[in-house]
Amino acid sequence: MSDPWVALEAGADPAERVRMLLRAHETFTEAGTVQRPVRPVVADSWRRSARAGVGPDGTASVELSDGDLGAYRAEHPLARVMPLFRELMGTFASDGEHLLAVCDEHGRLLWVEGHATTRRKADRMNFVPGARWSETAVGTNAPGTAVAVDRPVQVFAAEHFIRRVQPWTCAAAPVHDPRTGRVLGAVDITGGDGLAHPHSLGFVQAVARAAESQLALLLPPETAADTPELSALGRDEAVFASAGRRIRLSRRHSEILVLLSRHPEGLSGDELLCALYEDESVTPVTLRAELARLRRVLGPGLLASRPYRLTVPVESDVAVVERRLESGAVTGAARGYTGPLLPASRAPAVARLRRLIADGLRTALIARRDPDLLADWAHAPWGEDDLDVWRALAAVRPTASVRSRLAALESELAAPTATWLQRPRF
Prior knowledge:
Elements: H1 14-31, H2 40-51, H3 66-75, H4 82-95, E1 99-104, E2 109-114, H5 116-123, H6 135-138, H7 142-149, E3 153-156, E4 169-176, E5 183-191, H8 198-218, E6 229-231, E7 239-242, E8 245-248, H9 251-262, H10 269-276, H11 284-298, E9 303-304, E10 309-310, E11 315-316, H12 317-326, H13 330-336, H14 348-368, H15 371-378, H16 387-396, H17 400-414
Parallel strand pairs: 6-11
Antiparallel strand pairs: 1-2, 1-5, 3-4, 4-5, 6-7, 7-8, 9-10
């Protein structure tokens, strides 16, 4: 065989290979010896499985379910590339009666999607989201073995260590963090014997590489230990962290730092005056005095003038949410949004940015139709009167409490004095 990672060489008879593998599997479970035609990658995996105490009649255990699973998936880096996986593999899986599966670095399945009948069959062996399919849990299988050996791999029929999985064939490839090279998990295609083809292995490998390329664009760069950070969402006074110091800024200093962090090229005095003050009578002298005080708070060398600018890049929670929204990582954006930007600020530019971020996120949440994300927004202080979000939540999670709250909001909106409810409070 030219490629030891491919299950069947060209011209091999799948039925005859299955018979030979079943005999070899029986021999291994009884005597611990491996016979041909078991591939070296599979033989090594069988040995690891046996050393881990996996039995051939075992089954996968479900470790995460319901809310725990949803929260874990939302925070996992591979959530950012699930739209790509679905675009590249979804139709192939459905049309071919296969399953698209994605696991984390521990072999725990995060998503299992595809043909409905095939999913029902897979459910019977706990090939479901939240179940652990690592080699140490269920023995040889494509996603678990791909993570264990950090290589794309096919597992054909009786090459699976657990007997109840042996009617299946799968191919999986690991996905790495493009910044660190760390294995994040694996993408897998699971189905019948037709997947025992070199093309299926090449396919998942190409999908994994595409995911890594997209992650390189979506994941923020690793923040260096000495990179200043600004937290301004959900608080009236921002917190600036730099060189081991955490400084709570005044409201005006918070506004200035938010604006300068968004404009690394700098802002002139006139631009800052317009951005910060509603009152046109405020003089440049007032602004210069405020900036002088901010320079003393931040310490030497961080704030320059002509134009006013920060001398080093500053990472902010505002920028993180914006990047995630721009890349379509709605779940990550929602998790990073801890509240409206400097909610008490009346600075014109800050108010515009506050509305821009909130409107962009709520629009994305409504379009996503994820009940957990919609519920988080609706039950937050800034979303409790957001009629559009409550309507979207009622459409996907029509519980009695949701319907009751929606009815109350619609009743208030219909009242002549309730026009203030027509816009959510940001």
